[in-house]
Amino acid sequence: MKQTYTVLLQGLLLLIAVLLLFVLLMGTDWAGLTNAEERSEQTAQRVGELMYDFINETEEVATDTALTNPVHQLIQKLCRDNGIDYSSVTFHVLLNDEVNAFALPGRQLVVYTGLLDECRNESELAGVLAHELAHIEQDHVMKKLAKELGFSMLSTLTNDGETLGLVFETLGSSAYDRELEIAADMAAVEYLEVAGLNPRAFADILYRIDGMQDSSPEFLDWISTHPDAQSRAEAVMDAVDSELPIPEPVLPSAMWDDMKAAL
Ligand SMILES: [Zn+2]
């Protein structure tokens, strides 16, 4: 008899739990949540396009595949091995002597030929690309802009130079966000290790840029907002798995040499 009561009680409790869950689920505005997410993705896409157009007015796009192929291959390798949706990432190689690369909203990555020139091997380039991919994956630029300017301003952003200037100014003038940079560096080490690229080379280029003159506009991510490159390089070395064997090259060596020859 006692056992029957226990079973009945358990059944009743289960029924109550299911009913509660049902009420909670009904009360959640699922459509609203999805719409909000879609809206913020659409806004990021649009803001990113406007920003890229703005940059593109004064820059020349590299059309030589000798320059774009290594970037393409390394981004693809990093994405595929790390479960990042490669097809959603757009990259642009621009003819500019600045040693720079940066992420834009809408999953865009911009690389300057000055960076391709500075990199001594594919792993150094992969290190910078991995850092920028981490900014993209963690939505850092949009978060920073939304915090400083507000989402509603961004969602109504139009193709007007003055407002876009303000967007860039905001990215440049808001305090250097060390936490985001460290997060991107640590994610980059992981991406590189998973993809079989050498994360120690990422530390090498960080050590080198530490001594470089900063002449680029401040919103550009790579150098100017990275004043303490040396301490970041040390943090990267600390994060590298010490058992890691020296990785095999990812790119055919001719591809790297062709890129260097095309610069
Ligand atoms: Zn960064």
Are there runs of 5+ residues with pLDDT below 50, and where? none
Number of helices, counting only DSSP H or I runs of 4 residues or more? 12
Q: Roughly what is the average pLDDT, rounded to an integer?
A: 86
Structural class: alpha+beta
- Compounds present? zinc ion
One letter per element, helices H and strands E, the order comes to HHEHEEEHHHHHHHHH
- Helix % is 55-70%
3D architecture notes:
The protein has about 260 residues and is an alpha+beta fold. About 65% of the residues lie in helices and about 5% in strands. It has a 4-stranded mixed sheet, with helices on both faces. Strand 3 and strand 4 form a beta hairpin. Bound molecules: zinc ion.
SSE layout and pairings?
Blueprint: H1 2-27, H2 30-56, E1 60-61, H3 65-81, E2 90-95, E3 101-104, E4 108-112, H4 113-118, H5 122-137, H6 140-149, H7 151-155, H8 161-173, H9 178-194, H10 199-209, H11 229-239, H12 253-262
The chain binds zinc ion (ZN).
Zinc ion (ZN) binds at residues 131, 135, 181, 184, 221.
Summarize the structure.
With 263 residues, this protein is an alpha+beta fold.
Name the descriptors.
globular; alpha+beta; 263 residues; binds zinc ion
